[in-house]
Amino acid sequence: MNTAILLIGGNMGDRSANLQKAIKLLQAEAGIIARESALYETAAWGGVQQPDYLNQALELHTELDAPALLALMLDIERRIGRVRRMKWGSRVIDIDLLFFNNEVITLPQLKVPHPQLQNRRFVLAPLAEIAAERVHPILQLTVAELLAACPDPLPAVKLVTAPH
Question: pTM of the entire structure?
Answer without folding.
Answer: 0.91
